[in-house]
Amino acid sequence: MKKKKLDIFNLFYSGAAVVILIGVIAKLLEWPAQDILITGGLAIEAVVFGVSAIKFVEVEEVHKGATEATLAKVADGLGQIASSGIGSNADTYINIQTGNGQVENEQAIENSTTLVPLADQKNQNTPDAATASSVQSTTSKLAIDIANSANSNNPSSNSSSSNNAAHTLWQLEQMDILSLAKDLFFQPEWDKLSSEQYSQISVLFKRIFDKKLPNKEALPFLIQFPVKLPVPEMSKLTLTKTESLTIAEIELLCTAFSIINFNSFFELFILEANEDNFDIRARKANETQIFGGEDELVIHHTQEFYGKDLIISPNVECLSNFIRVKGQGLLEHLIQKVDVKAEAEFISLTNILQNQSDELKKKLFNKFKKIRYNVSNETGYSYLKTLVQSAISFKDTAAGQALFNKIIEVQIENNLVITLDDVVNCYADTIYFGPKNEYSVNLSELFVNGELHNLNFINAIIEKLAADGVANKSKLLEVFNLKEQDSKKDVFNKLNYHLNKTNTAPSGAQLAFILLYKQYS
Prior knowledge:
This protein has about 525 residues and is α/β, with parallel strands linked by helices. It contains 20 helices and 15 strands. The protein has a three-stranded mixed β-sheet with strand order 2-1-5. Strands 6-8-7 form a three-stranded antiparallel β-sheet. A three-stranded mixed β-sheet has the order 11-12-13. Helix 7 crosses helix 9, helix 12 runs parallel beside helix 14 and helix 14 runs antiparallel to helix 15. It is flat.
């Protein structure tokens, strides 16, 4: 017979809702007691929410499962256990604690899943070892059981089972299944390495990074393991001290890193020469690895000016695939870092760029706003000389000339500085216009601020550069834009430049030249 029972909580919630609704109605209809009713209703609603926040749920206690490192250790020895001589038509059931092997009828477990109970080694001799969690696999007929150690001490066990247990335990210890090392470093792609290479990389990783790789024979089992094992991130590798490497070990690392497409090695570590050996160490924040196979001039420049920041790697060809700053990228890096006020560094970098692209030379020119050469004390001559050499080396001579003309200044006197636009390259004193040259303008009336004398200073500079073997005179005249005499158009442009520079209105002769040029040109 069923009995009815009053639901207290339902009565409480529903009753509270009634009070709240009455309070709202009172507020809408503006009853005299509206304030009391609405306040009481909201207060009860707050109590309802407070009470409903308290709730108890049932929680099932779950035993701690086997770690993925444990599973990896177990799979490390499956290959050797599988070849223990048990018939192919039966299932092998190995107890890790006792080492007892059992053959179960295949049909009896055909429709069931294979259980792989696991426990921590240090808990194997405790009664709780039998509570280790199970991992199910429907693809394998091989099972490994970690049972209660009390079973292994059963006096009823015969001597044959004891011998078998000792033998199996010895096998598992040799395969390192029983020791659950936390430093297992599993890289499935390294199965592509040969057995010899894998053995060498295992020793190398243990020595340098203190990481232990599973046996090569265990990799296929780990790759196909029912529980997907995590692949450790290479970026988590660390070095606590400097270690030495041989060229063969460096090449082995290159091979292993290529297989897994790990290209950020030198964002973490640095390789550098140390007498006859090569050292690997942790990278400092300000350091950048560069390839040791660069041109000799680049290597010398780097060592002299950036020895603490740019670290040269061993000249091992395979390293170039992993080093980001190399080749043209390295040259751009050097251009970006160059201090143009440091004369020796600037000259060294310019010499490096002599046989490089015009684009790189242009980037170096753009580092300058102006370069000034003083004709009296020859201050700035080394910069002038170097920039002339760089401008001449341009494949596009016009581009090199334009960049040079843009930044060069010549100081004639203490308060007088000229550019190449202030140089008038005309040997005749008069310019003629008209079909029969019936109109003429004297140059001395066009340029009244000494522009006609500036040519002498530039010619003296060209003579000095030619004497110093910078280039032949013909090339120098081309760089200084003096290879040909100024045309009427050149004179017209320089006159406008002169008027704009001095911010003056044109004189009568200057105005006449402008009108004649526009009329007959």
